[in-house]
Each structure stands twice: as C-alpha cells, then as structure tokens.
Amino acid sequence: MCRRDGNFGMVTALLAIPLALSVGVALDYVNASADRENLQALADSAALAGGGQYDGTNASVAISTAEAILKSYAEKLPAGTTYDVKLDGQSLSVTMDSASTNAFMGIVGRGTTDIGVASTAISPMKPKKITFMPTKAQGWYYKKVSIIVVRPKSTAEEVVGTVTYQPTTQADGGQGTMVVSPQTTLELGDYASLILKMEIKYDGCGLNQKATVSNSKVTCSASNRNADKTFNLTLRTDNPDTTHYLFVDGVQLPQGVTSPLESILECGKTSNHAWEDGGGWARQDFFYTATSYCAPNGQFVRLTR
C-alpha cells in the first residue's frame, strides 16, 4: 500500500529546489538592476560635468572632467568596471561596462550578470563671434547700435562693438555715413547674455554735439547743452517695450516679449537686420547684416539619453 504523505513530502522537496532557485534569480535580478541604476547615475553625472565645461575649444578639459568623476568612484564600483568618454561635436558621451555578482545563479554556473550603461550630454550652441556689415542707413536722426555682453556672475554691461550712422544731409529723407567699430569679427568671449541696443538723437548729431542745418546739409559742433548730453530714445532687444523696433529678415519682432537670442542671431547664418528709429513704421532706417559663429555653451548642458 502506497503512503500518500510520503509522496507529498517527496514532491514538495522536488519543487522546493526550482522554487528556491527562482527566488534567488529574482533577487540577483533586483541586485543587478540596482547596480545598473547606480552605474547610470554615475555616467549621467560624469557626462553633465564634462559637458558643462565644454566651450568648443577645450575638449581635453571636458573629457578629463568627466573622467575625474568616474575615477573618484572607482573603489566603489564592481571589480573590472570599464568606461569610455568621447566628445563628438556638441555631445559628450560616457559608456560604462561592468558585472553584477550573482548570489544564487552561480549555482547554475552564472556567477555574474553583465550590465552596461550609456549617457550623453549636449551643450547647445550659442554665438561666440559676430560679424556686422552695414548695408544702408537713412533718416534725419543720429543712430548708434551697440553690441553688448554681460559676463557670467556679473551685471555690468560691456560694449564689444558699435555701428553708428551720422546724417550728413536731410535731403532724400536723410542720408549719411556709417562706421563699424571694430572693423573685424567681434569676439564675444564667455557671456551670460547678449543684447543689441540702438540709441537715437533726434537733432542728427552725437552726444555733446549740436546740429546746424543749412540747405539740408547737417553740420555738427561741440555743445555743452544738457539736451545734447543724452539720447532721446533707446531701443533694446531685452526690453519688451522696444523689441518691435527691430526687423529680422523682413519680419518685425513682437512687442511685449524679450526676444530670445536664437531668434535674432542664428548660428552659422547671416541675417538681415533693420531698425526703425521711431519716425514711422513704413520705412526702416538702419540696415546691416549679422553673421554669427557659434560654439557649444556648457552653461545650459542637458542629457539626451
């Protein structure tokens, strides 16, 4: 006669082995997932740190910064962990390969689980150099366009270049001469914000000067009058009240918003600018082209994967 309790005990014992192995495999998987998450967090940190240093000219600094982050955690990583840091264009990539030790799957001959992660940080482009080329100016007003940068951790405005228009006659709606300073590509350097500003003096002459008009000819001479010590109107691309005075490629910028840099100076492109000096919207008065040359901006680095 067969004893059922004995059979049950045998079946239970046989089932216990795969059940225990299944639980062990699950635990090994959880541990491997945790190791992968830690590895991914480290790769992300290294990519962001390296990408944050990149300015388009210092590839070795960006790569060594990322590698320094990885090396600082070397003792905490599983033995045999390898990594690779590469820089391609605006993107800095970090790949890491490692192995998570299995506590249970070693029973069936699998002592480790391979884990690998990758992270890429991209530094968006921003203008580093600008070439301004005057094409036309008209009107009765004296006008001065300034290219201004504000350096990181500073509020001081630094003028890096100017374009001025000096009317010489009021005939033909006002005609005159333009001067660009400096007459080379402007090196912007590292900056937090870039601003275009146009200052206007209604009489037709610059600061500390007064205009005399005879037979439409405009002559400027020195002046101590308070009225000649300041401009009558100042327009800025970071002033929501005056952004609409600037036209870019024939399109008037909207009023009431601070015009984003990328809508004014597109990387690697030449845009046509036209400023209205306040005399009437039908005819702009100050025309020039702006060509920007860009490089990665580590200040706004972000992860892409």
UniProtKB/TrEMBL annotation:
InterPro entries: Tad_N (IPR028087)
Stretches assigned to the Putative Flp pilus-assembly TadG-like N-terminal domain: 6-51
Protein name as it appears in the record: Pilus assembly protein
